[in-house]
Amino acid sequence: MTTAIPVTRTSHSRLTEELREKSPFGTNYSDHMFVADWHDGEWHDARIVPFGPMSFSPALTAFHYGQALFEGFKAHRTADGRVAIFRPIANHARLNRTAARLAMPELPEPVFREGLLELLRTDREWVPHRDGGSLYIRPVYFGTDDSLMVHAANRYRFVIFTSPGGAYFSQPIRLLAEETYVRAFPGGTGDAKFAGNYAGGLLAAKLAQSRGYHNVMWLDGKERRYIEESGVMNIMFVIKGVAVTPPLSGTILPGVTRDSVLTLLRDMKFPVEERSIPVDEVAAAHAAGTLQEAFGIGTAAIIAPIACIGYQGHDLAIATGAPDSLATRVRAKLVAIQTGREPDTHNWLVYI
Ligand SMILES: Cc1ncc(COP(=O)(O)O)c(C=O)c1O
Asked: Which of 56, 59, 91, 58 is nearest to 73 (CA)?
């Protein structure tokens, strides 16, 4: 497949300052999307077209047998007026790990990179200018066979579209330790960004919300004893001056933000441990007054301070928002790198 991507521009751009600067997270989409199709063993027809509906057979593989995955990362305006994408190469690598898990073809790096860069150049004006604003980039990749046979599809579609927005959570969040449902189990798909993982988590989130929490805190699938993730984010605690986060054991999503935060903490010489964390340890640290902080970590919110964890009928209240908290400092550092206000010493930014 050639890398010269044809661009069909929309005849009427929807771009307004209001949409670009005021859209809540994930509610409005920019004018164009990148699309490529796979069939007969190859990628075909990479193109930029106006964002809009696509039509499919009701027998679409993704609807029935769930071959569907997505990714999420962001582009920001930098201090010098350019636009930089944060760690797209890491997301491309994760996309291909998920694809392999779902028996889907590999997406070659040039298709991803050229499609992404051409789309962002085409819709560059959609990148918000406001502080905290970003253009969220959503690749989605799915099986498109028109057949009810249960096997890996013979046809696939890959799409990238974008959405202007601000931060995902503004308030500290309340989580409920989930002791009934599980998100993942050894040998399953927990470390893949597989669409079905999210469907499987919605009921628990809905039930937690009906009890006044924002989301669940997932526990391990075997014993419901070890902490895994915070809703759709990774999770970190600060206990006795050490930042602790669950290890990449195959049941949690290897978050790109998690990896970035761990890298920054090591740069800052902040003590870090990647290890299993029993929920009882967190409850005991809370009782002993040594649980200093808890926060979710992910692209959308970056850092989401956790103000409360509901566990076995008790709400463990956790302090948030102190200007010298680790959550505040690490978030500021990450945002400064993403927006070109601090040197990008790890080569995380890709300028368009
Ligand atoms: C289940 C889950 N865990 C963790 C994360 C954090 O990953 P990342 O930092 O790559 O956004 C996400 C996605 O955003 C997620 O969906």
From this structure: 91
pTM of the prediction?
0.96
Task: Give residues (CB < 6 A) around ligand 1.
Answer: 72, 229, 232-234, 253, 255-258, 298-299
Instruction: Tell me what percent of the residues of the chain surpass a pLDDT of 70.
Output: 98
The pLDDT assigned to 170 comes to: 67
CA distance 6 to 322: 50
Query: What's the whole-number average pLDDT of the chain?
Result: 96
Q: Which of 91, 232, 331 to mutate to test the pocket of ligand 1 (most atoms within 8 A of CB)?
A: 232
pLDDT in tens, 167-216: 765 689 999 999 999 999 999 999 999 999 999 999 999 999 999 999 99
Domain 173-338 in CATH: superfamily? D-amino Acid Aminotransferase, subunit A, domain 2 (3.20.10.10)
Q: What is the largest CA-CA distance in the chain?
A: 63
Task: Identify the three-state secondary structure at position 174.
Answer: strand
Work out which ligand 1 atom sits closest to the CA atom of 197: 1
Pick the CATH number of 17-166 from 3.40.1350.10, 3.30.365.10, 3.40.50.150, 3.30.470.10: 3.30.470.10
